[in-house]
Amino acid sequence: MTETPPAPKATAPNAIAAVSEARQWDRLMAMAKLGAFRGVDGSEGVNRACLTPLDREARRLLIGWATAIGLAPSIDALGNLFLRHEGTEPGLAPVLAGSHMDSQPAGGRFDGIWGVLAALEAVQALREAGIATRRPIEVVAWTNEEGGRFAPGCMGSMAYAGNSPADAWDAVVDGEGIRFGDALREHLAAEADLPRRPLGVVGGQAPHAYVECHIEQGPRLETEGQDIGIVTGIQGSRWFLVELLGASAHAGTAPLSLRKDAVQDMVRAIAALNALMDDPTDVLRFTVARIEVYPNSSNSVAERVRFTIDFRHPAAKVLLDRGGRIEPTIRAAVRHCAVTVTERFHALPVEFDPMVTEAVARAATAQGLRALRMPSGAFHDAQFMVPLCPSGMIFIPSRHGISHNPAEYSSPEQVAKGARVLAQVLAELADLAELAEG
Amino acid sequence: MTETPPAPKATAPNAIAAVSEARQWDRLMAMAKLGAFRGVDGSEGVNRACLTPLDREARRLLIGWATAIGLAPSIDALGNLFLRHEGTEPGLAPVLAGSHMDSQPAGGRFDGIWGVLAALEAVQALREAGIATRRPIEVVAWTNEEGGRFAPGCMGSMAYAGNSPADAWDAVVDGEGIRFGDALREHLAAEADLPRRPLGVVGGQAPHAYVECHIEQGPRLETEGQDIGIVTGIQGSRWFLVELLGASAHAGTAPLSLRKDAVQDMVRAIAALNALMDDPTDVLRFTVARIEVYPNSSNSVAERVRFTIDFRHPAAKVLLDRGGRIEPTIRAAVRHCAVTVTERFHALPVEFDPMVTEAVARAATAQGLRALRMPSGAFHDAQFMVPLCPSGMIFIPSRHGISHNPAEYSSPEQVAKGARVLAQVLAELADLAELAEG
After folding, report:
1. Lowest mean pLDDT: which of A142-146, A204-208, B4-8?
2. Nearest CB neighbour to B252, from listed A252, A285, A309
3. A107 and A47 in contact (C-beta within 8 Å)?
4. By the CB < 8 Å criterion, does B294 face chain A?
5. What is the CATH number of domain B8-235+349-437?
6. DSSP A298
7. Three-state DSSP state, A242
8. How much is the average pLDDT of A175-182?
């Protein structure tokens, strides 16, 4: 027989062994210092909002680690950061792997950042194992996945995937009135030393695949004693902003019958929405978690209230039907205020591609790990990559299912298992492509 | 007949004529520039929180006008500002007249500040008319009546009256985490050039009387075509702060049945309080107008909510009975959160002294004005002066009854009428005292 290219599945074990549990954990803990705060229960949380100095510091730390092992950084117009491991055939479509680096305001040390560090760890392990891949692999950190500072989330991946234009959110303001467009410009100026790449698919060449590691953010893997979640898809999400305009008045003099009290109309609206969203199966997710009152003075009747709605469901039909009834329900419930309802995020459920999910399943099996096929309740950047290329995700257990909370935790061993599965998946995807196309 | 002291009622008309409608209006508009902002309806409002640089600027402007006509400034440990018109018998108890200079966050140009400027105008008119009063008259500007930045309101008058110790509110923080005690220290340091006077009643000598001019902040005078409100008393007020502690969680993954959602418990609490506070006669005032949510991120279930309750009623019994049921009602309504209810302000209803109310009635009649006896729905610094000395208030109409709002308005003619009544009342009180005691 003539010489053939090395079989990818044969080379992977070296890379698996090269994944360093200690190195990945140390990097996670180093990142956790950027925005560290102590939760009410004493847990160490992270508050690292996107496009803040802390976010930039985290990116610089990542770039330092990546360039030290020979990866090439570049950023696009949304601030999405790419760290490229070159393939032996640089012209082939790359495999992308990553997640995001921003956190919720009272978030944890794993959500998002682990997916980026796992991709770095996996690529570093491949390189240290001496494995060349024909396809390039790009570690990616998407801008503003959380939407905690600027809503909606997933701006970076949505713009990359062509789901929304690059300037779609320029006018979105954070809690301090800073426009997203201005924060982004300031950020790009601070990163002017990094090579700039065009936003989105370059030269019509979509990625070969996208893989994202993430903590589960729910209790299933832990409860069922599983190591790895083979994510089959993501439930749909719709976000709304509700604005109620009443009239301020003196709390001591204005008769209740004559008031246009925006707080009272908000209470009516939420009560009506609770009835609309009632779901005995407890599958539906309905959340009002952000409220702003103006003037927010205890003795001035509220003139204006803005509140958010986060509505999710795995079935597109439910998402469309009940989501469509949100505005009429609010209008029927409100008595005195002018009502504005704006949809700010609309992501229908997606299913991941077997090319990725089966690679994850094979890797978990090969490594002797217990794996469970499951949908994701949280949305992720991967949701927006689905129309672009075969995509998928790898979950690991979250202690007590807690996330978006300082108590969020996965152990060093659990995150190492996730990175090892990713290393094998990347080796396979970056090589199998060659086989398919060669 | 031997020479007798001038009869006060005979001298007053000169002072009435000396009240300048234009001067008082110009001063009101000059003050309105300090914190000016444009309301949603285009009205010019004022946002001048207590102990801010704007508050200091307003006080300096007032002191400039007062010292230019010979009044002597002094301040006490709470930052209360006094501008003294000396009596021919300086040892007699003074008559105090004034109000406050701070505003609501989205307040108007008249609430509070007019009462201070009316007192200055009245005293200036007395002096320009050549009227000497045997008693001193002190124009007073109380610190933090609104309670918009630091709750509760009326700190200055409460401390002056001995209702609360001077350091009672040192630990109260504003929305930016600044302590009242620190803001006050900074303010006093900035006013170190002003003579300092002891806090409260000096040498056991309570004021002879206290008179406060204020806009009505309700629609009655306008609706009934009256010029002057002879204020007979003030309804009682109780303020509460409610804190709910739940648990943050991921809005996309956490099942509703397992959440400890502080926003949902707030909605339950407010709905239950609405039922408790139901009043078909529409006399009771119940307001929730300030809400803070943590972490206030649309996709993180709310861990904590703080909201305020402002509850008022003219009957002490209702205030005590229903006020006492607020905490149990909240505890019964809340399902998942830990509850803390703190009472932050407690002022029972007061009745004003006939010595003042009758002087106001006589002055209005003498000036051919239409006057109505009425209680006050809003609380005022005068409420805390009642235990100390004969006290009373003079109301003028508020357009459409609107207050705590940029649209707050009283005309130049209306404020002039109020100042003229005050001038006569001050002349009478500062002289009649002599007759009563002489």
Report:
1. B4-8
2. A285
3. yes
4. yes
5. 3.40.630.10
6. T
7. strand
8. 94
> Chain A partners of B250 at a C-beta cutoff of 8 Å?
217-218, 377-378, 403-404
Closest CB to B402: pick one of A249, A376, A404. Answer: A249
Domain residues of chain B, as ranges? Answer: 8-235+349-437, 236-347
Q: For residue range B398-421, list pLDDT tens digits in order.
A: 999 888 889 999 999 999 999 999
Q: What is the pLDDT of residue B211?
A: 98
CB contact under 8 A, A247 and B405: yes
Contacts of B403 in chain A (CB under 8 A): 249-250, 253
Q: Note the pLDDT of residue A234.
A: 96
Sort out which chain B residues have CB atoms less than 8 A from A40's CB and list them. 245, 303
Interface touch B303/A106, C-beta < 8 Å: yes
Does A218 contact chain B (CB < 8 Å)? yes
CATH number of A236-347: 3.30.70.360
Q: What is the pTM of this model?
A: 0.78
Residue B366 has pLDDT above 90, yes or no: yes
Instruction: Determine contact: B43 vs chain A, CB below 8 A.
Output: no
Asked whether the predicted pLDDT for residue B152 surpasses 70, the reply is: yes
Chain A residues 87-116 with a CB less than 8 Å from chain B: 104-107
CB contact (8 A) between residue B289 and residue A312: no
- Min mean pLDDT across A50-59, B7-16, B129-138, B342-351 is at B7-16
Question: Which of B146, B150, B299, B343 to mutate: most A Cβ within 10 Å?
Answer: B299
- How many CB pairs (< 8 A) connect A and B? 243
Give percent of chain A above pLDDT 90: 84
- Residue A207: how many CA atoms within 13 Å on its side-chain side? 33
Class of residue B10 by CB neighbours under 10 A (exposed 0-12, middle 13-18, buried 19+): exposed
Q: For A55-73, what is each residue's pLDDT tens digit?
A: 999 999 999 999 999 999 9
- In this structure, which CATH number among 3.40.630.10, 3.40.50.300, 2.60.40.1180, 2.60.40.10 belongs to the domain A8-234+349-437? 3.40.630.10
